[in-house]
Amino acid sequence: MPEDSTRTFLILTLLRVSIFSLAGLITFKLLMKHLDPTNKRKANAAKTATELLDRLGLKVGKELSEYELMIASHLVDPSSIPVTWSSIGGLGSVIQEIQETVILPIKRRELFSNSQLTQPPKGVLLHGPPGCGKTMIAKATAREAGCNFINLDLSILTDKWYGESQKLAAAVFSLAEKIQPCIIFIDEIDSFLRSRNVQDHEATAMMKAQFMTLWDGINTDSNTTVIVMGATNRPHDLDKAILRRMPATFHIPLPTLSQRVDILKLVMSGEPLADNVDLYRIASQTDSFSGADLKELCRNASLYRVRDYVAATQS
């Protein structure tokens, strides 16, 4: 009898300890969840990501971690991208080269399966002056190649909690591999992956190093179709290790005279245009204008037309 009583007492004691431990663990998790300032952001990102994944028909929602869901909230449906090659004026030679070196190996993999040298590049750099169409080219490339498109917001990778930035950087590549073919687009890439120096913050240096290590990881698997595409107007600020990982480099210069004529024709297509408007003359007087500058010029001219009409009707 004493032995039975002792055994019962021990079992009840262990049961009480287990219940209290479980209750304490649940309370601790709830408390940490309540105190986590990023919890609401993570919940909103997870909701957005789930909706995007369902819309894209990607059945990976349950397989994704909370960090991958945060990155997935920046996914763009390639079919919904409103930019095509016909939307870009004056860059025919660059577009043709991108079609041949980037898009063709993705869309026709069977033609290149027996060679390691003809696989699509794992890194593409678009560089040139602002307003010359670098971002438009990246979007059109994703649309034409039929790739899932992660428009990576660099602010999402910076987290004040130690280790969180590294987890988010890892999630970028793990998500891209799960939803491949995929293009990871980083606009103003020089602000993130500029040349390293001793003045870099420890967390920033670690994140850069991990990003490059993970990038090398996708290079080792020839069957992985994940491309990191960056755009910058300061290519010389980029780390040399980053430039090595971006073998496909395309310079997007300021448009020439004939290219400015093409851009003006594209911008003014569908717009009411007087018979005496000479686009060639406008193009010849806008040397050093970018494509964005030309579009803004046309927008201002259109606004002046409306303003003059309103002023005439009110007088």
Structure description:
The protein has two domains: 74-251, Rossmann fold, CATH 3.40.50.300; 257-314, Helicase, Ruva Protein, domain 3, CATH 1.10.8. The protein contains eleven helices and six strands. The chain has helices spanning 2-35, 39-56, 66-72, 92-107, 134-145, 164-178, 202-220, 240-244, 257-268, 279-284, 291-314, and strands at residues 75-76, 123-127, 148-151, 182-187, 226-232, 248-251. Helix 6 links the parallel strand 3 (148-151) and strand 4. Helix 2 (39-56) crosses helix 3. The mean pLDDT is 83.
State the order of secondary-structure elements, H for helix, E for strand. Answer: HHHEHEHEHEHEHEHHH
Question: Would you give the CATH topology of the largest domain?
Answer: Rossmann fold
Structural class category: alpha/beta
Strand order of the largest sheet: 1-3-4-5-2-6
List the topology elements.
Layout: H1 2-35, H2 39-56, H3 66-72, E1 75-76, H4 92-107, E2 123-127, H5 134-145, E3 148-151, H6 164-178, E4 182-187, H7 202-220, E5 226-232, H8 240-244, E6 248-251, H9 257-268, H10 279-284, H11 291-314
Parallel strand pairs: 2-5, 2-6, 3-4, 4-5
Antiparallel strand pairs: 1-3
